[in-house]
Design brief:
The complex is a heterodimer of chains A (about 375) and B (about 575). With about 375 residues, chain A is mainly alpha-helical. Chain A has one domain. In chain A, α2 packs antiparallel against α3. The radius of gyration of chain A is 21 Å and the shape is globular. The two termini of chain A are about 30 Å apart. With about 575 residues, chain B is of the alpha+beta class. Chain B has two domains: about 120 residues, Penicillin-binding protein 2a (Domain 2) (Alpha-Beta Complex), CATH 3.90.1310; about 350 residues, 3-Layer(aba) Sandwich (Beta-lactamase). Chain B is built from 20 helices and 20 strands. In chain B, strands 1, 2, 3, 4 and 7 form a five-stranded mixed β-sheet that branches. Chain B has a five-stranded antiparallel β-sheet with strand order 9-8-20-19-18, sandwiched between helices. Chain B has a two-stranded antiparallel ribbon with strand order 5-6. In chain B, β5 and β6 form a beta hairpin. Chain B is elongated and about 135 Å long. Classes of the chains: A mainly alpha (about 375), B alpha+beta (about 575).
Chain lengths: ~375, ~575
C-alpha cells in the first residue's frame, strides 16, 4: 500500500526506508490483538460494575487513534529531537505528578490520576519512558565528557522520580522504573561489585515492601501458600487458561472471563488464553520477545552510547512490563497488577507505551550517512 | 588547550569504544535474561493450557466447596432404609434475553411445550436487556427434549437438582421440605441442612414407614368418622426413646408445600400446645404416689363439687361419693384429681411436672417445637386444675414423653426422630421409682379394662392408658363449648410396656353411633384399638392370653372403693 522510492528524500520517504518495519509490524499486530481481546474481556467487567457493555471498548478505541499518531510522529523525530522531547516531557510530568499528589483523583487508595478538562491522565505512564531517555543522556554524557557528573545527575533524577511514585503510591511503576534504571547502569558499565550491591538492594526493597506494605505481604504470602488467603483471581485466571487449551474457545466464546476480576486490564492475558488458546498466547509472547530482542540486537552494532542506553531502558521497561503481566496471570510470581503493553485496557498506559515505543522506533532508525548525533 | 584538544578526542574515542564494548557485552547478558524469562513464560503457558488443562478446575471445587456446583443433597431414609427424601438431577431452563431474536415467537414456541406458563409473562421475561432469566426449573426429560427440539437461540439448560419425596405426605412433618434452591426449610431437612448438603450416606430416621402408614390411615379414618378438623398421633419406643411414627393431620405434599393451606404445615405433635385434660391425671397420680402424699388405697371425697373463688370443679358423670385413688382414674374424677394434687402440694407438683419435662420447651431434632404455656402464678387453684389437666398447656410430644417415663419404669430419656443403634439406650434421669411406675402401669391397664379406655382393650396386647377430653380455648381465652380435643395416651403390653401410642382427634362432632358423645372414650380409643393390633406384629410384640392367671395376678389392683365394694371389677 505504501510505496516509496528509495530515492524519495521527503521526511516520510526517508522514515519508511530507515524505520525498523519488522518491529513496527509487531507493534501493530499487538494493537490488533488488543482490540480483539478488549472486545472479549471488557463487556463482562463493564456489566459487572453497571456500565454499558461496550463502555471500555469505546473508550479504548477512542484512545487508539491518538496513540497511533503519537507512535508514528515520535518515530519521525531525529535523535536530538527525541532527546529534547523526552526532557520537556520529563519536566512536564514531574510537575503533573506533583499536582497529582496535591489534587489528584484518588482511586482504590492511590492518587495516580490527574483530571484535565474531562480527561483523566496518569502522568506516571509518561514519566517512565521520558525518564529512560533523560537518564540515558546523562549516563552517556557522563561517560563521554570528562568531569560531567552525568551519573550523579541521573541518580538524582531517579531519586526524584521514585520519590514521586512512592508518594502516590504506585509500586508497579517503582519496580519498573528501578529495574529499567538498573539495566541502564548495568549496560553503562558500572563495576560488578556495584551490580551485586544493586541486586542486594533490589532484594532488600522487596523484603522491605513485604514488611512495610500489608498488601504486598499478603500477595507474597498468598503466592507462597495459596491456601493462606483469597486466591480467587489467580485461580480463576489459571482456570481460564485451562479452559482455553491448545486452540482456545474462540473469540467471544470464553466463559471463565465472565467471573474473572480485572479481566480487561491486569488479567487480559488469561482471557487471551481462554479464547485464543496456547498457540496464540505463544505468538503474543514471541511478539514481545521479538520486539525486545530485535531492539537489543540492533544495539549491538550501535555506536552511540546515548542511543544504546536509551533503547535498552525503553525496551527493558516494555519487555519487563509484559513479563510481569504474563507471569502474574500464570502464577509464576505474586500478583502484581500491571497492564499488558498495547493490549490491556487503559488510556494513559496505551499513550505512554506509544510514546516510549515511538522513541524506540526513532532511535533505532538506520542512520548510516545521515551524520546525526 | 590545544594539546588537550589534540588529546581529548582520541582519549574520549578510546573511552567511548571501551564503554561501547562493555555496554554491548552487558546488553547481550540482559537479552539472555529476557530470552530466558520469555521461554519460561512459554513453557508455563504450555504446561497450564495443555498439560494441566485436562484436570478439574481447582478454583471452585477445591478452594471453596460451598461455591462449587451443588453437591448432591444426601438422602433421608426411614429406620429400615426406605427412601423418605432423595435428590434427582434435573435440567432447568433459562434464557439470555439479549440473545433472543424474537421474544414473541420464542414465547409462543415455549408455551407449546410448557403450557402452564403465561404467554404474556414469558414474553416480558424474554424481552428485557438482561443476560439471565429463569424460565422453568426442573424440566422432565421429555420436556427438555421438546424444548431442545424447538431450537430457540438464547435458551439454555442448567443442570439442577430437585428434592423428591417418594412417600409424599406420609412423613412430611418429620422430614420437612426444601425450597427451590434446595435449602432445607422445615423438619429434618432444615435442622440437618448442613449435614445433608455435605452429601454422604443417607440420614436414617427412627420413623418406621409401616407404622407411619398405619397411624396415618387409622387416624384419617377416625377423623372422618366424627368429622374432625384434625388429628395427630405418635408411637414411641419407651426404652430407646425413638419416635417410630409421627403423624399430624391434615398434612401436605412436601413437593409443593407453599401452595397449600399453611395450617397443614403445622405439626400438632410438636408445635401445638394444648391443655391435655384428663390424661394429666396420670401425672397427678404418679407424683402423689411417688412423693408419698398418697398410696394405692388412699381415698378422695368426690361427693360434691369444689367451689374455689369463682370456679366450680365438678365431675363429668360423677359418682357423687368418696373415691379410692384407682377409682379417681377409672372414673376420671376431676374432684378426686384436684384433691390428690392438693394433697401433694404445689411445690411437689411443680417439682415432678418439671422432672417429667412438662414445664420447659422440649428438645427434638426438628425445628418446629412449641414451648409449654405455664401459669405465671402457681396458686392453689392452679394446682387443682393442673391436677386434672387444665391451666397448663403442653405439646403432645411432652405428654407422650412423660408417659414414656412411666411406661419404661420411671426414667425420662431424650426422645429422638433419628435412628439409634440397636440396643442403644441413652442415659436418662429417674423421675419416679420403679415401684411407682409399676403401680401406674397397673392403673393404666385398669382404666382400659374397667374405665373410659375400654374401646382400646384389644385382646392379647394388654393395652393400658388414659383418655383426655379437653375443652379447647377460644380466641378470647375462654373455653369453646362443644369444641374439644379428644386424646388417648396408651402403652402396651402393660406387663412389660414397650411402646407408647398417643392419638388426638381435634374437634370431633357428635354422631349417632357414639350416642352424641365427643369424649375420647368414644372418639379416640377405638382408633388406638385399631392401631395397636396392626402395629404390634410389625414391632414384634406377640399377643398373650389376657385372661391367663399370671397376667391377671401381675395386673391386679385392689381398689376397694370408699363404698366398701371389693373387687377387680366395677361392673
Amino acid at each position: 500500500m505504501i510505496n516509496f522510492a528509495r530515492t524519495d528524500t521527503s521526511v516520510i520517504g526517508r522514515w519508511w526506508w530507515t524505520v525498523d518495519r519488522w518491529v513496527l509490524a509487531a507493534l501493530m499486530i499487538l494493537v490488533g490483538l488488543g482490540i480483539v481481546l478488549i472486545f472479549a474481556a471488557s463487556p463482562a467487567v463493564a456489566e459487572r460494575i453497571g456500565l454499558d457493555s461496550f463502555y471500555f471498548v469505546r473508550k479504548q478505541i477512542g484512545y487508539l487513534a491518538p496513540a497511533l499518531v503519537i507512535l508514528l510522529s515520535v518515530s519521525l523525530l531525529n535523535v536530538r529531537n527525541v532527546r529534547r522531547l523526552a526532557v520537556v516531557m520529563f519536566l512536564l510530568m514531574v510537575v503533573c505528578m506533583v499536582l497529582t499528589i496535591l489534587m489528584g483523583v484518588e482511586i482504590k487508595g492511590a492518587r495516580r490520576w490527574l483530571s484535565l478538562a474531562g480527561f483523566t491522565l496518569q502522568p506516571s505512564e509518561f514519566i517512565k519512558p521520558a525518564f529512560a531517555v533523560v537518564s540515558a543522556w546523562m549516563l552517556a554524557s557522563g561517560r563521554m565528557t570528562s568531569g560531567f557528573p552525568g551519573r550523579t545527575i541521573a541518580m538524582a533524577l531517579y531519586g526524584l522520580t521514585i520519590g514521586l511514585l512512592l508518594l502516590q503510591p504506585d509500586m508497579g511503576m517503582v519496580v519498573l522504573t528501578s529495574a529499567m534504571f538498573a539495566a541502564q547502569l548495568f549496560v553503562a558499565g558500572i563495576p560488578m561489585a556495584l551490580v551485586a550491591i544493586m541486586a542486594i538492594g533490589g532484594l532488600a526493597g522487596i523484603v522491605g515492601a513485604y514488611f512495610v506494605f500489608p498488601h504486598v505481604a499478603s500477595r507474597i504470602d498468598r503466592f507462597l501458600d495459596p491456601s493462606s488467603g483469597d486466591s480467587y483471581q489467580v485461580n480463576t485466571g489459571l482456570e481460564a487458561f485451562m479452559n482455553g487449551g491448545l486452540f482456545g474457545r474462540g473469540p467471544g466464546e470464553g466463559t471463565v472471563k465472565e467471573i474473572l476480576p480485572d479481566a480487561h486490564a491486569d488479567f487480559i492475558f488469561a482471557v487471551a488464553g481462554e479464547e485464543l488458546g496456547l498457540i496464540a498466547c505463544l505468538f503474543i509472547v514471541a511478539l514481545f520477545a521479538f520486539i525486545v530482542l530485535r531492539g537489543f540486537t540492533r544495539m549491538l552494532s550501535e555506536g552511540n552510547l546515548f542511543i544504546l542506553f536509551a533503547v535498552t531502558g525503553l525496551l527493558v521497561q516494555f519487555g519487563l512490563q509484559a513479563i510481569i503481566h504474563m507471569s502474574s496471570t500464570l502464577h509464576l510470581m505474586p500478583t502484581k497488577g500491571m497492564t499488558l503493553p498495547l493490549i490491556s485496557y487503559g488510556g494513559s498506559s496505551l499513550l505512554g507505551i506509544a510514546f516510549g515505543m515511538g522513541m524506540v522506533l526513532a532511535l533505532t532508525r538506520s542512520r548510516a550517512g545521515l551524520g546525526e548525533v | 588547550m590545544s594539546m588537550m584538544g589534540n588529546n581529548t578526542p582520541q582519549k574520549l574515542e578510546g573511552a567511548t569504544k571501551q564503554a561501547l564494548e562493555i555496554g554491548r557485552t552487558r546488553l547481550l547478558m540482559t537479552g539472555a535474561i529476557f530470552l530466558l524469562a520469555f521461554t519460561v513464560i512459554g513453557a508455563r503457558l504450555a504446561d497450564i493450557t495443555v498439560f494441566q488443562g485436562g484436570a478439574e478446575p481447582k478454583n471452585h471445587a477445591a478452594a471453596n466447596p460451598r461455591n462449587a456446583w451443588p453437591t448432591t443433597r444426601a438422602d433421608i431414609v426411614d429406620r429400615n432404609g426406605s427412601l423418605l427424601a432423595t435428590s434427582l438431577v434435573t435440567a432447568s431452563l433459562y434464557a439470555n434475553p439479549r440473545q433472543i431474536l424474537d421474544s414473541r415467537d420464542a414465547a409462543q414456541k415455549l408455551i407449546t411445550v410448557l403450557p402452564e406458563l403465561s404467554l404474556a409473562e414469558l414474553q416480558t421475561k424474554l424481552t428485557g436487556n438482561r443476560s439471565f432469566t429463569w424460565i422453568r426449573r426442573h424440566l422432565t426429560p421429555k420436556q427438555q427434549y421438546e424444548v431442545n427440539r424447538l431450537g430457540i437461540p438464547g435458551v439454555y439448560f442448567q443442570r439442577d437438582e430437585r428434592r423428591v419425596y417418594p412417600q409424599g405426605p406420609l412423613a412430611a412433618h418429620v422430614v420437612g421440605f426444601t425450597g427451590v434452591d434446595n435449602d432445607g426449610l422445615a423438619g429434618i431437612e432444615r435442622s440437618f441442612d448442613e449435614v445433608l448438603k455435605g452429601g454422604g450416606r443417607g440420614l436414617a430416621l427412627s420413623i418406621d414407614l409401616r407404622i407411619q402408614h398405619v397411624l396415618r390411615q387409622e387416624i384419617t379414618a377416625g377423623m372422618k368418622r366424627v368429622n374432625a378438623i384434625g388429628g395427630a398421633g405418635m408411637v414411641i419406643d419407651v426404652h430407646s426413646g425413638e419416635m417410630l411414627g409421627m403423624v399430624s393431620l391434615p398434612d401436605f405434599d412436601p413437593h409443593n408445600p407453599t401452595s397449600l393451606d399453611p395450617k397443614t404445615l403445622f405439626n400438632r405433635n410438636t408445635l401445638g400446645v394444648y391443655e391435655q385434660g384428663s390424661m394429666f391425671k396420670l401425672f397427678t397420680a404418679a407424683l402423689a404416689l411417688d412423693s408419698g402424699a398418697a398410696n394405692m388405697t388412699s381415698t378422695f371425697d368426690a361427693s360434691k363439687p369444689i367451689k374455689i373463688s369463682r370456679f366450680t370443679i365438678s365431675d363429668f358423670q360423677g359418682k357423687g361419693r368418696v373415691l379410692s385413688l384407682p377409682e379417681v382414674l377409672v372414673y376420671s374424677s376431676n374432684i378426686g384429681a384436684a384433691k390428690m394434687a392438693l394433697a401433694a402440694g404445689s411445690e411437689v407438683q411443680k417439682k415432678y411436672l418439671g422432672a417429667f419435662g412438662l414445664l420447659r420447651k422440649p428438645t427434638l431434632e426438628i425445628p418446629e417445637i412449641g414451648a409449654p404455656m405455664v401459669p405465671a402464678q402457681w396458686k392453689e387453684i392452679n394446682t387443682m386444675t393442673i391436677g386434672f389437666g387444665h391451666g397448663l398447656a403442653v405439646s403432645p410430644l411432652q405428654m407422650a414423653s412423660g408417659i414414656v417415663a412411666i411406661a419404661n419404669g420411671g426414667v425420662m430419656r431424650p426422645i429422638t426422630v433419628l435412628k439409634r443403634a440397636a440396643g442403644e439406650h441413652p442415659q436418662g434421669n429417674r423421675v419416679i421409682s420403679q415401684r411407682t411406675a409399676t403401680d401406674m402401669q397397673k392403673l393404666m391397664r385398669l382404666v382400659v379394662t374397667d374405665g373410659s379406655g375400654k374401646n382400646a382393650n384389644v385382646p392379647g396386647y394388654l393395652v393400658g392408658g388414659k383418655t383426655g377430653t379437653a375443652e379447647k380455648v377460644n380466641e378470647h381465652g375462654g373455653y369453646k363449648r362443644r369444641a374439644v380435643l379428644s386424646s388417648f395416651v396408651s402403652a402396651f403390653p402393660m406387663t412389660n410396656p414397650r411402646y407408647v401410642v398417643l392419638v388426638s382427634i381435634d374437634e370431633p362432632q357428635p354422631i349417632k353411633e357414639n350416642f352424641g358423645y365427643i369424649t375420647a372414650g368414644w372418639v379416640t380409643t377405638p382408633v388406638v384399638g385399631r392401631i395397636i393390633p396392626r402395629i404390634a406384629p410389625i414391632l414384634g410384640v406377640s399377643p398373650v392370653d389376657d385372661q391367663a392367671a399370671d397376667v391377671k395376678a401381675r395386673m391386679y389392683v385392689n381398689y376397694t372403693s370408699a363404698k366398701g365394694r371389693p373387687g377387680a371389677s366395677v361392673e
